[in-house]
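Issue 218. Parser rejects a valid record. Input:
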Amino acid sequence: MKPFIVIAEDEPSVSELLRYNLEAEGYDTAIARDGDEAILLLDERVPDLMLLDWMLPKVSGIEICRRVRSKQDTANLPIIMLTARTEEADRIRGLETGADDYVTKPFSTSELMARVRAVLRRIRPALVEDKITIGSITIDRTTHKVIRDGKDIHLGPTEFRLLEYFAQHPGRVFSREQLLDGVWGSDVYVEARTVDVHIGRLRKALMSEGGTNPIRTVRSAGYSLRED
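Output the parser choked on:
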């Protein structure tokens, strides 16, 4: 059975982005648009993890966190709190209320997915699949190792994140801007042509032991990882 994650987030653009990326990683999801709906979802089915926005309408994320920790059947539910609050005092308050992790907006999608895996790995390790295999390429997220056709491929940190991001969406074409947002994060300024440099390094590394080019360039559109 796939791990089940509740997304309690009132901004549709954010909740749909989270749903898309979580389901691409193999999770089942449900979205709650306000605090009351989040509580109903928890009563219907206890999830394996909850992404909880602090500033939910009707019932705040902080209050939901308190209620979750006070009930026996949800006391150990992993919670990652999402919020635009960046002050240290707010972060401490969120963690002391019972959140397992705390992510401020705007956030990098790839970083948040890594945090989801880290929390599940720590609390419920049997739920987390730490390897992705696409064709002849295997990515081990725990050890940050990449193997192609049985041979180790040595990648830098950015190239590893690029490959991991591609592997979560095999066959999909990403523009440079989408890759910048997904891999580097929307709050980091990097020139679009920097993507080309790292794509070149990734290709060179993946082909260092021979084999076909696994990364496709789509003219005027971007790049994708071949599904085969």
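Fixed in the parser; the record now loads. Residues 109-123 form the longest helix (15 residues).
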